[in-house]
Amino acid sequence: MTVRRRRAPRAALSVAAWAGLAWVAGGARAAPAGAGAHLAPATNTTGAVAVIRAPVGDSVLEEASLRLRSELDAAGTGNRLIDCSGPGNPEPHDCPDASAVARISLFREDGIATLQVLASLPDGLELRRHVRVPAEMGGSDPSVLAVRAVELLRDLYLDIPRVARRPQPAPAATSKPTAARDTAAAPPAPDRSVAGSAFLGAGVLQGRWGLSAAPGPSLGFGVTFHGRLRVLATVAGPFAGSSRTPAGTDVDTWQTLVAAQVRYELGSSRIRPYALAGGGLYSLRAQAEQPNTQRSPLVAVGVGVVARIFPWLAVTLDAQEVVTWWILDVTAGDTVIGRAGGPSELVQAGLMLTAP
Fold first, then answer.
1. Lowest mean pLDDT among 85-94, 131-140, 215-224, 303-312
2. What whole-number distance in Å separates Cα of residue 235 and Cα of residue 326?
3. CA-to-CA distance for 335 and 313, rounded, in angstroms?
4. Where would a tag sit more exposed on the chain, N or C end, judged by fewer CB atoms within 10 A?
5. CA 144/CA 63 separation, integer angstroms
6. Structural domains counted in the chain
7. Which stretch of 27-36, 95-104, 165-174, 240-249 has the lowest confidence by average pLDDT?
8. Which range scores top for mean pLDDT: 94-98, 184-188, 322-326, 352-356?
9. What are the two backbone dihedrals, phi and then psi, of residue 203, each rounded to the nearest 5 degrees?
10. How far apart are CA 198 and CA 233, in angstroms?
11. Are residues 211 and 271 in the same domain?
């Protein structure tokens, strides 16, 4: 029994490489263009909460405003969209209609997504929350921003329907009500565009011609750029399996893949697809009576999906096509009883951690 290698057909390498490039190009063209669509002014003027229109052209904040209004609608809280002339942090005097019980605005300070919730009570009391959300804490995710805004509104201990029905107190003869300001600002944090990443998971590697599917672990370390581009050094395997000779003898095999990969995620939602490509080294070891090991350079392309649980933790699932420069055959005499890299399929799932 031996493991021998021969040069893979150039067509197989070309097809795998061009398939990955075509998928990335098609995915980029298919990126949603409506995420930042301009929202028409609301006609409902009786809402208790006013959502100030996000800066035009900021797709993340515009999408967050849409999701925020959906969250308020789902909770049964009336709301409407208003325009304010003031740039950046809008104050009540910048808004043509400042009569709402509460106002929520989304804008950026020094490039960092910022949420402000302001409530004006009938007795003149003003409550305010002003929080900055860096990208690594969810500032680039519209869903996270919308949920944080609703939580800030809740944290004001403001019961919108009850406050709206509260009778106006009689004005004091000698003094005017004093406005109190309650500000809870998170400490400023730099907008980090580069963060460390780690991957831990497991997968199944399928060969050809008798080299059956074999399970194995996988792990990787690398860096993440702007929350969507990841460069990883990965090790998958060993994938332990077996092949059988025509004489009925079992041949144990171990396959290991070491590669450098680039992954690019598309979209801005919690669940998003990604494409990956990379290169490295494929090792196949077979043993019946005597061990025999062969290695070959590899190219891998694939697609997957990532579901973000927290800003620092996500679940990934992907499928890869692995092609080797030399096809690795497990042979018994002149009979091929297993083939690796001609091509092989790798399916793996795991957890992706990003440094906070």
1. 85-94
2. 20
3. 47
4. C
5. 11
6. 2
7. 27-36
8. 322-326
9. -155, 180
10. 9
11. yes
Are 156 and 48 in contact by the 8 Å Cβ rule? The answer is no
Q: In this structure, are 330 and 198 located in the same domain?
A: yes
Tell me, what DSSP letter sits at residue 33? Answer: S
Percent of the chain's residues with pLDDT above 70: 70
Relative to beta strand 194-206, strand 2-7 is unpaired
Question: What is the DSSP secondary structure assignment for residue 136, as one 8-state letter?
Answer: G
**AA letter at 80:** R
Tokens, residue 264: 């690019």
Whether residue 65 sits in one domain with residue 19 = no
On whether both 328 and 214 belong to a single domain, the answer is yes
What pLDDT does 86 receive?
A: 56
In whole angstroms, what is the distance from residue 259 CA to residue 277 CA? 10
Q: Where are the beta strands (DSSP E) in 44-164?
A: 49-52, 79-82, 102-109, 112-120, 126-133
Whether 61 is covered by a domain: the verdict is yes
Secondary structure letter of residue 330 according to DSSP? E
Residues in the chain: 356
Strands 49-52 and 79-82, bridge-based pairing: parallel
Closest CA to 183 of 122, 116, 135: 116
Scan for tokens 């990965």, then name that residue: 234
Q: What tokens does 56 get? A: 């035009």
Q: Is the peptide bond before 343 cis (omega within 30 degrees of 0)?
A: yes
pTM of the model: 0.49
- For the segment 264-282, the average pLDDT, to the nearest whole number, is 93
Same structural domain, 200 and 58 = no
Q: Identify the CA nearest to 90 among candidates 73, 112, 114.
A: 114
From residue 203, alpha-carbon distances to 42, 219, 319, 328 in Å are 50, 10, 9, 20
8 A C-beta contact, residue 66 and residue 39:
yes
Q: Of 307, 329, 327, 325, whose CA–CA distance to 316 is shortest?
A: 307
Q: Return the closest-CA partner of residue 147 out of 119, 115, 112.
A: 115
Q: Domain range holding 64?
A: 49-165
Distance CA 304, CA 248 (A): 38
Answer whether 216's CB lies under 8 Å from 206's CB: no
